Amino acid sequence: MATGSRSLEKQTSTDELPKQLPYDFLKKITNDFAEDRKISGGPFGTLYKGIVPGIGPKDDKVISVKKLQENAPMPPNKTFNNEVQNVMALKHVNIVELVGFCCETQKKLVQFDKRYIMADITESLLCYEHLPMGSVKVNLFGTKAAEVAASRKDWDSRFKIIKGICQGLRFLHTLDIPIIHMDLKPENILLDANMVPKIADFALSRVFGQEQTRLCTQTVVGSYGYMAPEYLYRGEISAQSDIYSLGVIMMEITTREQNSSGNDQPSARKFIEKVQNTWDKEQHIASKYYSLGPQGLQQVKLCIKIALECVSIDRKQRPTIVEIVERLNGIK
């Protein structure tokens, strides 16, 4: 691309960033991907804070820049194409906005067979709206969890987050060409300043044809503790794959207990059984949310009921996201 970073800085002082951004520009706004600009890291890439200069200091715009890993579970070019093609045009209050991207080949000195050679390295980066509150995991189970729990609106915030996630998923599943996320988990749901959740990280997402309801793959990649059993063991992908993950997330948010399933429990069955054996009782719900009135307790009970239906072993027994949203909206 011929556009230089200096002229680009003038353009990016407006409300909308250009869709394609030069690598040198992204390197500059992240201070050469400095450690103190690092927001988070994962198997697919590292997220950095990028500061786009405005006319004055108060006009600076902050974006999040994700630098894809070369040794990711999926090839960077496939991850990059998934996110750009599947998310670029999406506009919804509960979906993180992709504001730009970069795919450039750079000459770099690399070690090969005990020698250093010049090689062409393709740098793939994705730029999103910046959400300073961080993920649901950080806010409900990490360093900010105590602040949320101390709030009188603890359940109100949690119920709002659950409903927002469901609304975002409904948007994806009911597009003319539906998108299946395939990696729903608390780390991939970000919160804005008003605790509005936004589904993020579409690296594993799949696009379905209008008449297509499921497909199969031999490459099973995802997050242990949230993977639907039919995907894990048979490679089956469908909208119900996301519904299973949603059920586990709803349990975590509602029970305030984190699913700690690892390699030995990729579908979180122990966690699910624990919730089923304890939280399916009104007395237990009332003891854990003793400050809630009848309406709030009904909301908690409904969320547990829906979550348990979502994690049914038989995917055909799981509710659709449209049904889930209707049921959640039916109880205020």
Automatic annotation (TrEMBL):
PANTHER family: C2 CALCIUM/LIPID-BINDING PLANT PHOSPHORIBOSYLTRANSFERASE FAMILY PROTEIN (PTHR45707), PROTEIN KINASE DOMAIN-CONTAINING PROTEIN (PTHR45707:SF78). InterPro entries: Kinase-like_dom_sf, Prot_kinase_dom, Ser/Thr_kinase_AS. Pfam families: Pkinase (PF00069). GO terms for molecular function: ATP binding; protein kinase activity. This is Protein kinase domain-containing protein. The lineage of its organism: Eukaryota, Viridiplantae, Streptophyta, Embryophyta, Tracheophyta. Residues 33-332 form the Protein kinase domain.
